[in-house]
Design goal:
Shape: extended
Order of helices and strands: HEEEEEEEEEEEEEE
Low-confidence stretches: 23-53
Number of strands: 14
CATH superfamily of the largest domain: Immunoglobulins
Strand content: over 45%
Number of domains: 2
Largest sheet: 7 strands, antiparallel
CATH topology of the largest domain: Immunoglobulin-like
CATH class of the largest domain: Mainly Beta
CATH architecture of the largest domain: Sandwich
Helix content: under 10%
Radius of gyration: 30 Å
Length: 235
């Protein structure tokens, strides 16, 4: 039997359709999402899962002079999977040297305060914190500087009453006149009060009206000011 050219063409087209259908059934359809993580969170090198928690909530990182030492203080509001902190020091804010480690709290939902003392230098030095998780990932804090320690720095003498009802008085002692920003932060890490003041040469007494705050524990610290943070309780 002779097959016409039209019939031959139809048979070829039909075979191609059948082959395409077979290949389509055999081909696995795979939709894959990939997360490319890096060695640290200081630099973004990939997209993390949406529910991946931040390692710590750093409320403050300050330093002040005590005798011949630079005393570094920092406070966290929360910590997640936090293994330890590494204190790093530099003379130019470019090349860094690790000078000590402080154990972290692991997992915490309350204020945690840390301190580290370093021998004071004759020139300006810089410090930063390297926070490392249990899984080896890490992040860096902001950089702070420290001038040579001398007697021309203000310090907080006392905060009273504490616990407080409505008002609290802060006593400063300084040999210079300078501006200070006082901030109060809640346990959740929210800034609930801010006030700019001027500290005079000698003793200064600053009264804060905190009657609008709810009962609870707060962190009082001094932004851009070389002193340590203080915990206060509102009754």
């Amino acid at each position: 039997m002779t097959i016409s050219n039209d019939l031959k063409l139809k048979i070829i087209i039909m075979k191609k359709h059948i082959l395409f259908f077979i290949l389509l059934l055999a081909l696995p359809i795979c939709i894959q999402a990939q997360y490319t993580g890096g060695s640290g969170r200081g630099e973004i090198v990939g997209s993390s899962p949406a529910d991946s928690p931040l390692p710590i909530s750093l409320l403050s990182f300050t330093n002040f002079c005590k005798s011949d030492n630079n005393v570094l203080n920092w406070t966290t509001a929360t910590e997640t999977n936090n293994d330890y902190f590494t204190i790093e020091k530099s003379t130019d804010a470019k090349e860094w040297t690790a000078i000590g480690n402080i154990k972290g709290a692991g997992n915490s939902n309350e204020f945690k305060s840390y301190s580290y003392s370093d021998k004071a230098s004759a020139s300006i030095v810089y410090y930063r914190l390297k926070q490392t998780d249990f899984d080896g990932k890490y992040s860096y804090s902001e950089i702070i500087s420290s001038k040579p320690c001398n007697q021309s720095e203000a310090s907080v003498i006392s905060i009273y009453p504490n616990p407080l009802n409505d008002n609290v008085t802060i006593s400063f002692n300084s040999v210079v006149e300078e501006n200070v920003t006082i901030e109060v932060v809640s346990e959740k890490g929210d800034k609930v009060f801010t006030k700019d003041i001027k500290v005079i040469n000698g003793k200064s007494f600053i009264e804060l009206d905190l009657s609008h705050l709810a009962k609870g524990t707060y962190l009082l610290y001094f932004s851009n000011y070389p002193t340590e943070s203080h915990k206060i309780v509102k009754r």
